[in-house]
Amino acid sequence: MPKLHSRAVFVSFRSGDVAHAERLHDHLSNGLGREEIFLDREPGNIRVTDDFLKVIKAAVEGAEILIALIGPAWASNENLSRLNDPEDFVRLELGRAFERASAGEKVTIIPVLVGGAQMPRATDSSPAQLLDLVKIQALTIPDESTAYREGLSRLLDAIDCHSPGLRARRQNTWLREALSSPDESRARFGQDIAIRAPNRQFVQRAAANAALDAWWRNWPDQHNAFLLLGEEGDGKSWAVADWLAHLMDERDFVTPIVHAPALKLPDASIDSILTFCLEMSQPTPADDGWRTRIRTLTESSSGAAPLFLLVIDALNERPRLNWRDLFDSLRVPPWRSRIAVVVLCRRGYWDELELQTDGLTCSWDLGKFNDHELDEALETRGRRRDEFDNEILSWMAHPRYFDLALRLEHQVLEGGLTLERLLYEDWRDRTLRRKPACSHDEFLAMIQELAERYEARSFQIKGLVEAAEGLAGDVKALRTELTSSGVVGRDGRQLRIGANHLPLALGLVLADEVRDAEGAAQMAEVIAARLGSHSASDLSVRICAMAMFLALDDESYPEAGRLALLRAWIEGRNLNESDLQRLVNYLPLQPQTFLRLAEHVWGTAENREVQDAFMVGLLRHR
């Protein structure tokens, strides 16, 4: 039989009710997609020279839902009597659908009453098809527009509940589109995870894929969540996107995937996350359409397969949300046995949450490229290790910086790729997540505006000028240059990044973003995201220090922001003698901030070197 005309939903109707059928078809097409609805009168469904009966039979065979559209014409005495004819098309359509259902196949028959029609009455002499049909609870859709929309919403809920394959195809088609287009990916998820974009080369993280595959196989028995941990820039989002793309390629995969970027979520409850994301990918006509539909699904569905595979990307980007509620809800029905959850999170933030998830999560750490993965990544781009400076190569072991460095391929060929240029491009690229367009000129204009704001004030607190100049040279001259020519110059066609300009320029950006963050947790995440997995590198430390100086110098700067920058500056690395001496010297500049830092150092950090520096400072400045 032909497969060309198969659709998820087959609409059976009498020709006298064609206006009702076409109206319903148009509305269902808007909600489900025209390619999922079969109506024999629609152009392309039955072509010239096709065997009409064979096409109809094939369409019924392939349908997950058969809508028996009962209008005034269907319920007339004349048409009811036609059901006694073995060759009547409506009888054949209903009969085959009931046969499939009796045989245990996944097909649902839904009688839909339109145009004021009533459910026909059956007698002992009525054909079996009518006898079976009248046993099913019908759904009424009135003609009036508001009531029609409400009835249509109920019908869509019923279709979604009884057609998991259709639900998966619709949702996963939307995800595939995002994974195939960088622009769509940024618009929908706030970042480029278009793993299937044309000409995109990607090195699979084999160990991560194996861990996710093992978890997915075992989920029906264990019902636990998968927790993927790692540092900024180590490719967590890309690794999971690659796994999802391969999962959707499998022929028997029929689970809808809901990809939820934490940065966009309204709150941390599962029903709110699902509702928000599904309304974005598959809008419903009713205000509470998906919330109601999800409730219906959890109450009526059963089976080993989950209703949805929910991927929550980057918990750490929304520290103000109560993620404890998410994991608490996964401990009990209905969510634990109905929703499979994959969570991505920065390792440091997850440790700070201190959630008790014993038995609830299966965790796995994703690190930077190992030697084999790095060599494979270079080979796919036609590159070798000896083409890169060792320091840049160490950064390129992190997938984010690898991809970024190769995007600057022409600079590599011209010998112009420096660590400063790589870091500048990384910061500009991250700004794209907050601003849809951020060209070089726009990013530089933003830096110049920040420099002008600080230029008007200069360093007010004695001692900070010397400290800043120890990191970046003549700060006043540099800030004057930033307000005019900027951090980036040009040698011919090649961009040139000033080694001393960069710490000040990016320190300005970091200080400004920390100031704008809401609350201490969000401030810490802004710093972690900006400094990434190389927070202990000399250049990143200088940027953080410059932001810290700017914060200490500004009496109006939020106290929590100063503290977050100070903590970031002292943590995650070994402080040298000059750093410890700076702590001693800075203590009287903003005493309240340093006293709060002391509480942290003695309370949770347990950093003996910093404790000793504080004691020296307290004794010196008492």
SSE inventory with pairings:
Blueprint: E1 9-12, H1 18-32, E2 37-38, H2 52-62, E3 65-70, H3 77-82, H4 89-102, E4 108-114, H5 128-133, E5 139-141, H6 145-162, H7 164-180, H8 182-189, H9 206-222, E6 225-230, H10 236-249, E7 257-261, H11 270-281, H12 289-300, E8 308-313, H13 323-329, H14 335-338, E9 339-346, H15 347-353, E10 361-365, H16 371-380, H17 390-396, H18 399-407, H19 409-413, H20 419-431, H21 440-455, H22 464-472, H23 475-484, E11 488-491, E12 494-497, H24 501-516, H25 519-531, H26 538-553, H27 559-570, H28 577-586, H29 591-605, H30 608-620
Parallel strand pairs: 1-2, 1-3, 3-4, 4-5, 6-9, 6-10, 7-8, 8-9
Antiparallel strand pairs: 11-12
Written overview of the protein:
The protein is α/β, with parallel strands linked by helices and 622 residues long. 55% of the residues lie in helices and 10% in strands. Helix 21 (440-455) crosses helix 23 (475-484). The longest helix has 18 residues, at 145-162. Mean pLDDT is 83; it is low at 1-5.
